[in-house]
Specification:
The complex is a heterodimer of chains A (168) and B (120). In chain A, α3 (36-62) runs antiparallel to α4. Chain A has 168 residues and is mostly helical. Chain A has helices at 11-17, 22-28, 36-62, 67-89, 92-118, 139-167. Chain A starts with 10 loop residues before the first helix and ends with a helix. Chain A is built from 6 helices and no strands. Chain A has one domain (32-155). With 120 residues, chain B is mostly helical. Chain B has one domain. Chain B has helices at residues 3-25, 32-55, 62-88, 93-119. In chain B, α3 (62-88) packs antiparallel against α4. The longest helix of chain B is centred in the middle third of the chain and has 27 residues, at 62-88. The mean pLDDT of chain B is 94. The chains are: A mainly alpha (168), B mainly alpha (120). The A-B interface holds A 1-2, 5-9, 11, 34-39, 41-43, 45-46, 49, 53, 57, 61-62 and B 27-32, 35, 62-63, 66-67, 70, 74, 77-78, 81-82, 85-94, 96-97, 100-101, 104.
Chain lengths: 168, 120
């Protein structure tokens, strides 16, 4: 977009120096939707899209074939949507909401994954969570773990930043 | 569906992915070449949409045809979305998002080809 080749500012170095200016401090505050968080939001957005698309298709085209997995697909889609928006917004309430969504997601993928392995007849069709998300390269299993780690890391970084600014 | 088009699309994904990887290693952000390659790939995906829609009648099964058409439209969202996210990010993660986007487009294009070949 710009004429010159932009280079990423070194956040680690800039963070300590810019803390005095309110605008700069705001930009440097740890945020669940910045840095690595952008990739996380992008992946969550993609899964939300994939799960929504799949559930709409499954429910409209062949719901009778396997109602339970198809409804689970719809629930997963909703959870991915909440997680995407929560992580992208990054304020206190949104992050709390995202934490809940990710926790449900982790439990969901573990329960449905185990269920689909034990009782193969209940899952004749693929869903996002069956077989621990094998159809999606196990991304649905890894994502909530990475997401919860990221939220925790951001919360800790925020606490550290706040402690540093009050001491000043 | 249309072998040459699929090859062009996968090559486009590879160019975008390599450029993003290069920028990532050189600590560069979104610049004109990246936007141009992204736009070129998007244009090719639009061609795929038109060709795909025109030929979609060849898929007999209704649900499979719906899947095929849904993929044709969905794949259009990936490049613009990843570039928009990348423009806002001022660290190396910007290029990680573009790299991921290129990979996803390649997967979706391959999946489209798979749905087509299984049903025609």
């Amino acid at each position: 977009m710009s004429e010159t080749t932009p280079t990423p500012d070194d956040r680690g170095a800039a963070g300590a120096g810019a803390a005095g200016a309110p605008g700069a401090a705001e930009a440097d505050r740890p945020h669940t939707g910045h840095g690595f968080g952008r990739l996380l939001v992008a992946v969550y957005g993609l899964l939300a899209l994939a799960a929504t698309g799949r559930s709409i298709l499954q429910i409209t085209e062949y719901f009778d074939r396997a109602p339970v997995p198809f409804l689970l697909s719809a629930v997963a889609a909703l959870i991915y949507l909440v997680a995407t928006i929560g992580l992208a917004r990054g304020d206190r309430t949104s992050v709390r909401l995202a934490t809940v969504a990710l926790s449900i997601e982790l439990v969901g993928v573990l329960v449905v994954g185990t269920w689909s392995v034990v009782d193969k007849a209940a899952f004749p069709e693929k869903t996002v969570w069956s077989h621990f998300g094998a159809g999606y390269g196990y991304v649905p299993l890894l994502l909530p773990i990475v997401g919860l780690w990221w939220i925790r890391r951001t919360a800790r970084a925020t606490a550290a930043t706040d402690a540093a600014s009050t001491r000043r | 569906m249309l072998q040459p088009l699929t090859v062009v699309l996968l090559a486009g994904c590879a160019v975008l992915g390599l450029l993003a990887a290069h920028h990532l290693l050189r600590r560069r952000l979104v610049d004109d070449p990246l936007i141009l390659v992204g736009a070129g790939l998007e244009l090719a995906l639009l061609v795929q949409l038109v060709v795909g829609l025109a030929k979609s009648g060849a898929i007999a099964d209704g649900a499979e045809r719906a899947t095929f058409i849904a993929y044709l439209f969905t794949v259009l969202l990936v490049v613009p979305a990843s570039v928009v996210i990348a423009v806002k990010e001022k660290t190396q993660w910007a290029m990680a998002v573009v790299l991921g986007g290129a990979l996803v487009v390649a997967i979706l294009v391959a999946r489209l080809q798979q749905v087509w070949s299984l049903n025609v």
